[in-house]
Amino acid sequence: MLKPMSEQRVKRSYPEGNRPWAIVLILLNAQHYTAACFFNRQDADDHKRVLQRFMPKAEFEIIFTPPE
Length: 68
Prior knowledge:
Elements: E1 21-26, E2 32-38, H1 41-54, E3 60-64
């Protein structure tokens, strides 16, 4: 079972804002889980297509997280 974002400890090996495109898995109660981050939108779209093939009932969205 996935933990809510507030309980997860995210360890990133790249600077914030370096990969602004992310695929998030939409969970219940307005929660989400970041599945992957990408440098460009096309890579995110391609990876989302693969995820949908393996998990057809899951709801994924691609978001842009601008650097601060």
